């Protein structure tokens, strides 16, 4: 079963996707990480996406959908981290899944918005892997250094307060409606975790869900 991680920036989706990769063999597909790699490499997609990302706006649907098509071709279950983010993307994903005879359940990271700015401004990222830390909630062993590679960590340019405000507004306007999309009474496929809880606690909730094999009717 493929998983769609749904929730605002800073909810903890990337953190948990990395843990589930290690524990259960999922493959994390983070659209943000793919886009940032394109920006670093200066590809045409990266050049086009950069302005939107720097300002905290969503990248246009057609670019994202084109980027995601080949991703679902690979074998094995994926965690879609940061996709879909609009109703148009969700409909395109459903069409892709239908064509490839695959299914997916959505996991909502339910969190009080008041914690998000602190989580994002305190986030440190290992650019090459997308691994993240937090100055207070999940510090690296050595400040500013990735535990696994010893390489320096960065603060993402869009993790500053002004851009965070735009990103959260984009989430409320364009992504939050997907909660109702996946919680459709006719075809419910949404489960929630309490993402306000400490990191290990959220991992325990997800482990329970995944071990019980998240089902299409939303029950764990
Ligand atoms: P997302 O991928 O949803 O944008 P991240 O997984 O990158 O969010 O988490 C954002 C920041 O908050 C990171 O610095 C991470 O270490 C921290 N974080 C993640 N989950 C929690 C949690 N449950 N409690 C406190 N901090 C968390
Ligand atoms: P993230 O790493 O998930 O926080 O995403 C960082 C930025 O990448 C977002 O603010 C958007 O500009 C862009 N982005 C990532 N995923 C998507 C998506 N599915 N649709 C549109 N834009 C996206």
Explain what the structure shows.
There is one protein chain. This protein has a single domain, classed as Rossmann fold (3-Layer(aba) Sandwich), CATH 3.40.50. The chain has a five-stranded parallel sheet with strand order 2-3-1-4-7. Strands 5-6 form a two-stranded antiparallel ribbon. Strand 5 and strand 6 (131-134) form a beta hairpin. The chain has nine helices and seven strands. The chain is an alpha/beta fold and 220 residues long. The longest helix is centred in the C-terminal third of the chain and has 15 residues, at 161-175. Helix 1 crosses helix 9 (199-211), helix 2 crosses helix 3 and helix 4 (61-68) runs parallel beside helix 5 (87-99). The protein binds adenosine-5'-diphosphate (ADP) and adenosine monophosphate (AMP). Residues 7, 9-15, 119, 122-123, 132-134, 137-138, 195, 197-199, 202 line the site of adenosine-5'-diphosphate.
Quaternary organisation of the protein chains = single chain
Strand content: 15-25%
The hetero compounds bound to this protein are: adenosine-5'-diphosphate, adenosine monophosphate
What is the ordering of alpha helices and beta strands?
A: EHEHHHEHEHEEHHEH
Radius of gyration: 17 Å
Number of helices: 9
Name the strands of the widest sheet in spatial order.
2-3-1-4-7
Question: Number of DSSP strands?
Answer: 7
The CATH topology is given as: Rossmann fold
Which whole number gives the mean pLDDT?
A: 94
How much helix is in the residues? 40-55%
Helix/strand structural class: alpha/beta
At CATH's second level, what is the architecture? 3-Layer(aba) Sandwich
The CATH superfamily is identified as: P-loop containing nucleotide triphosphate hydrolases
Apparent shape: globular
- CATH top-level class: Alpha Beta
């Amino acid at each position: 079963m493929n998983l769609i991680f749904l929730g605002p920036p800073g909810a903890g989706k990337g953190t948990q996707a990395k843990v589930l990769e290690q524990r259960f063999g999922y493959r994390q597909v983070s659209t943000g990480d793919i886009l940032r790699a394109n920006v670093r490499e200066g590809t045409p997609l990266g050049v086009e996406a950069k302005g939107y990302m720097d300002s905290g706006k969503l990248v246009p649907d057609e670019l994202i959908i084109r980027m995601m098509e080949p991703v679902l071709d690979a074998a094995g279950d994926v965690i879609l981290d940061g996709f879909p983010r609009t109703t148009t993307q969700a409909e395109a994903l459903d069409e892709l899944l239908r064509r490839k005879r695959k299914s997916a359940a959505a996991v909502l990271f339910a969190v009080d918005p008041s914690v998000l700015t602190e989580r994002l401004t305190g986030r440190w990222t290992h650019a090459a892997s997308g691994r993240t830390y937090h100055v207070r909630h999940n510090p690296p062993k050595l400040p500013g250094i990735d535990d696994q590679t010893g390489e320096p960590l960065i603060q993402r340019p869009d993790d500053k307060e002004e851009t965070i405000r735009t990103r959260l507004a984009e989430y409320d306007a364009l992504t939050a409606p997907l909660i109702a999309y996946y919680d459709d009474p006719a075809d419910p496929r949404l489960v929630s975790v309490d993402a306000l809880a400490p990191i290990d606690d959220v991992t325990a909730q997800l482990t329970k869900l995944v071990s019980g094999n998240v089902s299409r009717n939303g029950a764990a």
